[in-house]
């Protein structure tokens, strides 16, 4: 195993691991981790084949630091700055060409839930829980939740979840599509890293193309999307990855991407 990095970001065998919250401040979102994560995603090198989002405390991320909100001389300006940094991070995740995996242990509330909704694959445990948490403190959503949640769970369900500040348990989160699947609570972080490591060894250009097509489909007609798919698969067929995949299939061997 090879690893390089800091408290908030490290690269382990081709997986960029980003810590969005620590045990400090009750696992509230860590602004330093968010800023460090944005920088790491913007500077993503070719050695990185997947990203893992995680927290290092009991929870993935319990939302914003409400005590910090209350202590600010100008609460609006304080939250505006935090939201600006968070939204830079969300945009960086959205622009990331490699798969993004979230290991969601414990609570993902407020901004933590928003971050999970940006992941390509999200793993949780039986004790994982979600909550928008904004109505509970008289605030509106940030982190893109008003955009991502309707696209994941449907417009009607999103309205109910946000307006009632619903607590969503692990099984319901899987049913709604917020979580991809469940593993044992104590295995969430390790399984997220294992999934990311498997993706690192896969066809990276294929994953990038899949992510691009899925993103474009959100505002595309079927007719335009069919053209994109045709062009993308034709390009892939002549790429080193596509040639290796087809040749390995015919030779009944594992491809070397």
From TrEMBL:
Annotated SUPFAM superfamilies = ClpP/crotonase
Protein known as = Enoyl-CoA hydratase/isomerase family protein
The cross-references to InterPro entries, in alphabetical order and at most eight, read: ClpP/crotonase-like_dom_sf (IPR029045), Enoyl-CoA_hyd/isom_CS (IPR018376), Enoyl-CoA_hydra/iso (IPR001753), Enoyl-CoA_hydra_C (IPR014748)
Q: What does this protein do?
A: Could possibly oxidize fatty acids using specific components.
Pfam families (alphabetical): ECH_1 (PF00378)
Organism from which the protein derives:
Nocardia panacis
Record family assignment: Belongs to the enoyl-CoA hydratase/isomerase family.
PANTHER family registered for this protein in UniProt: EG:BACN32G11.4 PROTEIN, ENOYL-COA HYDRATASE
């Amino acid at each position: 195993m090879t690893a390089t990095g800091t408290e908030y970001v490290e690269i382990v065998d081709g997986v960029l691991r980003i810590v969005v919250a620590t045990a400090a401040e009750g696992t509230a979102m860590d602004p330093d981790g968010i800023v460090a994560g944005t920088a790491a995603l913007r500077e993503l090198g070719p050695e990185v084949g997947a990203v893992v989002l995680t927290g290092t405390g009991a929870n993935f991320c319990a939302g914003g630091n409400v005590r910090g909100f209350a202590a600010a001389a100008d609460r609006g300006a304080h939250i505006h700055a935090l939201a600006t940094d968070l939204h830079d991070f969300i945009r960086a995740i959205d622009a990331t060409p490699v798969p993004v995996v979230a290991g969601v242990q414990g609570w993902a509330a407020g901004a933590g839930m928003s971050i999970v909704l940006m992941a390509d694959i999200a793993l949780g445990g039986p004790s994982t829980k979600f909550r928008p948490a904004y109505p509970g403190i008289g605030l509106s959503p940030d982190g893109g939740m008003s955009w991502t949640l309707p696209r994941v769970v449907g417009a009607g369900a999103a309205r109910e979840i946000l307006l009632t500040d619903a607590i969503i348990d692990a099984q319901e989160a899987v049913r709604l599509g917020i979580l991809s699947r469940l593993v044992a609570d104590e295995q969430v972080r390790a399984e997220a890293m294992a999934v990311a490591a498997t993706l690192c060894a896969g066809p990276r250009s294929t994953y990038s193309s899949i992510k691009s097509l899925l993103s474009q489909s959100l505002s595309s007609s079927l007719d335009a999307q069919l053209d994109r798919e045709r062009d993308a698969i034709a390009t892939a067929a002549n790429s080193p990855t596509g040639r290796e995949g087809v040749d390995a299939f015919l030779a009944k061997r594992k491809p070397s991407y």
